[in-house]
Structure formats: C-alpha cells, structure tokens
UniProtKB/TrEMBL annotation:
Bilayer-spanning residue ranges: 35-52, 105-125
Major subcellular location class: membrane
Topology in the lipid bilayer: Multi-pass membrane protein
Name of the molecule in the record: Uncharacterized membrane protein YkvA (DUF1232 family)
InterPro entries (UniProt xref): DUF1232
Alphabetical UniProt keywords: Membrane, Transmembrane, Transmembrane helix
Length: 131
C-alpha cells in the first residue's frame, strides 16, 4: 500500500496549519505588511494558537468544525492580503521556527491573557448596576 495513512495526513494538515498560523503571527509583527492584513493576521493567529475555541472541542463534530473551517479560511484571507514574495519569506521563517522546540512561556502568556480577560468580564458583571 502506497501513500500516507489517514492519521499521517491529518498530522501533516495540522502541522501545515500551525506553520501557517505562525507565519500569520510573524506577518502581524512585520511593518512591511499592509495594516489591514496585520489586523487580520493577529485575529487569525490568536484564534488558531489559543487553547479556547468558539465551539469547545469536546462537542462531537461541531467542536472540530471551527478548527477545520474558520482557521483555514482566515489563513487564506491573510495569505491573499499579503504580497506573495513577502508571504514566502514569512512562511520560510515560520517553517524554520517549527523545527525548534516550542515555547512554554508563550503558552503561559496566552493562558494568562485569557484568564485576565475572563476576570475582567467577571468583574464587569459583578460590579454592574444590573447585577
């Protein structure tokens, strides 16, 4: 039997999405990228790299639907709004970075950011005059 198994193809797809999300994050920080593409890249990269989804992953089928639809469409929009030579450069940098160990400090930062946002919402609800 030739070719890759389904699990290998899914793993490759996940790796490609992670590299594209990292390239989007690099694009958001690059001053050569147009401002609209930078804002879109921040939103897509934050959503793709965040451990919190619109639809939780434990909900059968729907949980993965947002990861399989929203993230690739967002990355496609980012990719099309950035000039091709610049995207190639950013993608190569992201691919190189994917070969290095991951950052636990980055994960901790994202989790603290979400915790802070949830606390602000909680505090806003608790102190609102309608509560």
């Amino acid at each position: 039997m030739t070719g890759k198994s389904l699990s290998e193809r899914i793993g490759d797809f996940g790796h490609r999405l992670a590299v594209e999300a990292h390239a989007a994050w690099l694009a958001a920080r690059d001053p050569r990228v147009p401002w609209f593409a930078r804002i879109l890249a921040v939103a897509v990269a934050a959503y793709a790299l965040s451990p919190i989804d619109l639809i939780p992953d434990f909900i059968p089928v729907l949980g993965w639907l947002d990861d399989l639809v929203i993230v690739p469409l967002g990355l496609l929009a980012v990719r099309r709004s950035i000039p091709a030579p610049l995207w190639t450069e950013l993608h190569a940098a992201a691919e190189t970075a994917s070969e290095r160990p991951s950052s636990r400090a980055g994960m901790a930062f994202i989790l603290l950011l979400w915790a802070g946002l949830l606390y602000i919402v909680y505090w806003g609800v608790r102190t609102s005059p309608w509560h």
